[in-house]
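User: I'm curious whether this sequence folds into something compact or stays loose and floppy. Could you predict its structure so I can see for myself?
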Amino acid sequence: MRQLPLITENVVDNEGKPGFTVRKYNVGESKPYETTHAQPNSEFSLLVNMDVVNTNIELEGILTPSTTDTYYMTLTGLGPSKVHINGEVVYEQKDSISDPMGFLLGGVSAPLVEYSMEGGQQYKILVTSSPPIAQEGEDLGILEGKVGVRLDCMSKQEHDKDLLGEAVALAKEADYALVFTGHTTSWETEGQDQLSFNLPKDGSQDRLIAGVAAANTQTVIINSTGVAIAMPWLDEISGLLQTWFPGQEAGNSIVDVLTGKVNAEGALTCSFPKELTSAPAYGNFPGEYTGRQLTVRYAEGVFIGYRHYDTLPAEKLNFPFGFGLSYTQFDFSDFHVAPKSESEWTVSVEVKNAGGLAGAVALQIYVGSSKPVPENPIKVLAAFSKTTVDAGESRVVELAVKARDFASWSEKEQKWVIEAGDYNFSLGRNAADLVSTVKVAVKAQSEGP
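Assistant: Here's the prediction. I'll summarize afterward.
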């Protein structure tokens, strides 16, 4: 987890009700213009209180911990913030948050502060926070004058629990080990970039997978991320299901795929490199600062995604663009390319489901010059189609390809241009596995923007 839990239990406000008392002050004034009670947790949510402007706020409550322990706390505020315990300043965030949009969307980490408390004793918690102060030349936009703060807390015993040891012990006793990994909304969301190519946090998920896989040879990883990630454990596991972010039916849909009730039919929409250094934007991203202004140079040009990885050795990838396995087997035959005009072709292929389960496959048609030049991609995805075939049956599938689908943009002519020559029309299982290729003579042509 990126943030510790909010304080929600064993706390009462100034009226003795569960929760916190909230006081709001106009900036520069010492008397609150509004006081409310029974705030259910130790957060003044920016998302909930976007209408609160130019206001200083206080959260106050009496916490009675149930156990004696050292407690870890974190404090994050959109603007300068403090937390007091029994009148003592325990932690102060002197400046505005470094990543306002990350804070807005719940994805900002903060230093851990240790504080020892005795079970059954009362501790007066006071959190204060002010609107952010814009630096010279900085535009806070929609966050100008807004206020938000959260105080998180967890006992050291709970925080430092040996979860890896528990998982390994369970894995040793199990027939199969299913390990669910990935990002939560605090790790992957709008307004911020990934802190690491590896799964969060501090490699703990990678260590979890490695530990469980060493204890159980039948380990399957169910990963929920919206991006490619490093997989240093890939050779140690027996199965991997990339679920992206499947929504409220995640549980049912994952079980259906794992048990074979539903055939796996997905194809990757991006390439998964083994190392971050192989990514097309590596070395250019996140850019360079001039003062507080960050500038990114998009040096990769048209060589993004699979177009970039086509220029690298195959071993640089864990999984190429378009990759996807199935519980059945598809065979392809009679791959043909027929011209409809000088700028349009019909591609046909017979698809046979050679397995025992109905399923779908993503047919992918790539086109590239037989004599590629360095400034253009080796090939581009010109057409694709998801095709469902019953077990043991075959069907002929046709796809349309137009010249514009594989043309290159000419900066000089300000047009989409195709040079005359032979072009390879290829059927791919994915961007790195071309199963059949037909060479087609194409005339020079161009088309406006």
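Summary: The chain is about 10% helix and 40% strand. The mean pLDDT is 94.
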